Amino acid sequence: MSEIRAGLIGCGAIGGVHSEAVAGLEGIRMAAFCDVAEKKAHALCTRHGGDYATADAGRILSDDTLDTVYICTHHDTHADYCIRAAEAGKHILVEKPLALTVEDCRRIGGAVEREGIRLFTAFKMRYYPMVQKARELIPEPLMVVMQMMDNRWGDTWANDPVLGGGNVYSQGCHSCDLLRYVAGSDPEEVYAAGGNYYQQNGRLDNLTATFRFENGAAGCWIQGDANQPSLTSKLFMEIFSENRSVLLTDRFCTLTYTETGKEPVVYRGEEGGFVEENRLFVEALRTGAPMAADHVDGLMATLMMIQAGRSIESGRPERVASIARV
Fold first, then answer.
1. What's the whole-model pTM score?
2. Which residue ranges form the domains of the chain, and what is each CATH number?
3. Terminus of the chain with fewer CB atoms < 10 Å: N or C?
4. Which residues pair with 254 in a beta bridge?
């Protein structure tokens, strides 16, 4: 494949970050920009030397000169844009979550497989240097704890029950994906507690959940916006195996490795992921390698969230992986 020509749908903050990442890579060029607020599209187009800007997503999707589409829009629009892009024969990078419902994730997966295109779900936290280091140090954990606790969310589109789904369903896909990624296995079932404690959107705003994975590992997920703890930071993870543990703090920029009988070792990295996920996306398109995170990974992250919510409602454990395979 010669230089990959990409179009961007959604020129907000995340669209801008992906545009910057693409600008620093060889073999790909962001050629077209689209946003319902057309001024945003024109601003990014000018900044990155694009061919055109538009408010009409159909122009991007019908442009035969474009090889791939970046979808960085509100969460409730992902399914429609992904399916339309697949039917137009364009490869896709879609921001997390793949979709807010399992049904929409399956619709996307069906379109991708039917049309024979490649889809990358953008779970940037997989590629943080210290997350990669943690997997290197403990490749087969017994237990994993993942916490993402924010300060109170306000009146933003991501907190809207339809557009973004609220904190747990908007950001929790990162947490669930990381739990599954670090555990190295699909979850069999989940048991959760939590609820809509104070957010006026009526959506689940804080929870804790326990997953049992098919390889025997156990995982704990804590998500919400009650208050961001100063000691651990918003992002916090613990990984345990026999006589060894990893502690990730400082937004996953500091890793402390402890092994019985040895002095703890501290590693430090940077918060990143956007450049690396774009590099992996381009590499997969050019070489035919598997996508680092595809539509199945996107489905599993959404399913883990949905089934945790159902466990809260039912008061009992709920199946996960077997639902994905139906």
1. 0.96
2. 4-124 (3.40.50.720), 126-274+304-324 (3.30.360.10)
3. C
4. 249, 268
